[in-house]
Specification:
By secondary structure, this protein is an alpha+beta fold. It is built from three helices and two strands.
Length: 71
């Protein structure tokens, strides 16, 4: 299991992100978050070399290149 830290001053945002992260991954979660909170930035993290092109077309606001792939 991966660990994700979810932090916001608005507890409802923390709740929706927590539930969404427990239920889904990747592109589907971005679409669900943007549907409920269109103003909320969604940032992807990947070691995929074409992450910028791939995630821009799916609605992510930015990305963080992951330097390594974990087992």
């Amino acid at each position: 299991m991966k660990t994700v830290i979810v932090q916001d001053t608005d507890q409802s945002i923390v709740d929706i992100l927590t539930v969404a992260l427990q239920m889904e991954k990747g592109v589907q979660i971005c679409h669900r978050i943007k549907r409920v909170y269109p103003h909320l930035p969604v940032i992807a993290m990947s070691c995929n070399s074409n992450i910028n092109d791939e995630y821009n077309k799916h609605g992510f606001d930015d990305y963080i290149p992951q330097a390594f792939r974990s087992g």
